[in-house]
Amino acid sequence: MKRNKQIDVTRALALAGTFNFLSCCARACLLPFLTLYFRQLGLTPAMTGLVVGTRHLITLVWSPVASLLSKRYNKRRVVIILALVCSPTVALVLQLIPPTDVQQTGTCNMSATRSGPTQSQDGNLLVSSVRPATLWTRTLPEVNTTVVSQPAVTFPAETSPDAESAHVVTNETSLSQREEGESHPQLSQENTSVVVNSSLAEPKNMLQTTVSVAAPVRNKRSKSAPGEGEVEDGRFDFLGSLKVMDPQHQLFFLILIIVSVWECTSAPLEWTADDGLHEYLDYADASDRYSSTRVWGLLGAACGVGGAGLLVSRLSCLIIDQTPRSTVHFYCYAGVAVLALPVAAYLPLYLNKKRDRANGLLKAVQLVRGSPRALLCAFTTLLVGVASSAVDNFLLWEMQDHGSSELHMGLSLALALLSQAAFPLLAGRVSKLLSPGRVLTVGAACLASQCFYYSFLWGPWAAAPAQVFSCFSGGALWWAVKVQCEDVATPGAERSVRRIYSSLSLHLGSGLGSFAGGFVVQRFGLRWLFRGVALGLMLWCVCLPLLQWKAPQQRRINYSRLLAADASEASDSESEQDRDWLDKAMEDDRGNNNYGRRVNH
């Protein structure tokens, strides 16, 4: 009776579902909008891709190592609580970093604004003005300008190649710049445009020299910092090397350092909690019910991204003490993480010292490598991770360029997560119509169609219809991966094999995709990134069925399930010999051995 009182499976599942809901909700309040915040600070697409890709690679390496260390020293609960406390604290440090050349107060009234400099038909650079609430400007060199009236033809803005992201300045920023002697074109309250003659300066060169021209604007801010002579000490060599860089590279390296520390503190959370809870349920002979807690993670992420987007869109451009409203995402992340602390304190955890997780991962790699179909599935998940990184990193940029606010972004992403959570309701019918290999192909094809659709957005809500297909591009694809894991894995190794696939897609594929996607956007633009990803996935979807047909199919008999099956499940039409197949096989084996002995004598 004492053991039954200690192991309460219902309570354990309730706590696990609540913890997954809160932890995923906390991350979703910030992580989907993080690249948008980097854009507001002034990072280029290539720099943004490097920062996000580094974060994925840190998670890929540090998550299993931290999980093994926490198990070895029996400090799982300590690691979980430290991750919930330290990761929001480090994330809040990002708000202390100033932007590069001009300040942006948030994406306010995006439907009435333009995302940055555009080009006219003759190649001239246009700096479009907007409503008085928000002004999009660039710090430009002193060149001859011409004011064009409203009938002048302008085109919708998009992220152009070799161009830095657009920035917003308020009237307060313009006043501070004029106090320092800066001369800027005065934009009236009405809609006007400033046309910079391309014969005086190339637009590309002009944008590249923006940081150096804006250096006087930052001199006033740098006066409050320690003097330049103080960096002569050897302990400040790295800081001194940062000071000799241009401000944009200073911003990049500071963000890279903070994001790396942030990921080191938050990466151990998922694996550590997952291992402890699964071993607890396995000790209670209820490990088959653990998969039900994953649905709560998707629902929590949907609530987090949708709620944060709705909350931020309701705020004014500037909140308390001239703070931009985009910082509310960080406070939402910290607040929900604090709510998860009491649940983490009572989260049921168990330490199974007999199970070696490192050997389990190595065995899972060997199982995947030994099956041709498992290798095809692994390569597909890797490509899906590369493609998903383009959507996760730059979809909000594309939506912002077409007038979307945080409300449109948050609700669109929430719709995608809800559609993924709803796929288990359709899994039974899909499994009757399509095999897991075909479902894998359909999921990759749906993701390719989504990426191709994203390259033709036209309005704030244009991305929402494509998010419904995440039910197949996300939910169906991972269902097919789960079935593949069960086919290739030996009893007890299913979770390790599934982690191999998730690491390939969510971390390795996303990291490589972030690196490549940032440079593609920098060189060709957002639209060609989505079109290139769609084309690559479609080509693989054509080759995948042919490769699956050529690959030998290896069927593994799971004897433990057959022996544990209840004899009552057999139909009445089956004969007694078919039901006692194991006894018959043993008798035949004994008969063959006796015959061999008689022949030898």
Low-confidence stretches: 1-5, 102-107, 109-232, 565-577, 595-601
Q: Count the beta strands.
A: 6
CATH superfamily placement of the largest domain: MFS general substrate transporter like domains
Number of domains: 3
Query: What amount of the residues lies in strands?
Result: under 5%
The oligomerization state is: single chain
Spatial gap, N to C terminus:
60 Å
The CATH class of the largest domain: Mainly Alpha
The appropriate CATH architecture of the largest domain is: Up-down Bundle
* Strand order of the biggest β-sheet: 1-2-6-4
Largest sheet: 4 strands, antiparallel
Mean pLDDT across all residues, rounded? 75
Nearest-angstrom radius of gyration?
29 Å
Helix content: 55-70%
Structural class given helices, strands, pairing?
Answer: mainly alpha
DSSP helix count?
Answer: 25
Q: Which topology of the largest domain does CATH recognise?
A: Growth Hormone, Chain: A
Shape: globular
Structural key phrases:
601 residues, Growth Hormone, Chain: A, 3 domains, membrane, two-stranded antiparallel ribbon, 25 helices, 4-stranded antiparallel β-sheet, transmembrane, disordered N terminus, MFS_MFSD6, Major facilitator superfamily domain containing 6-like
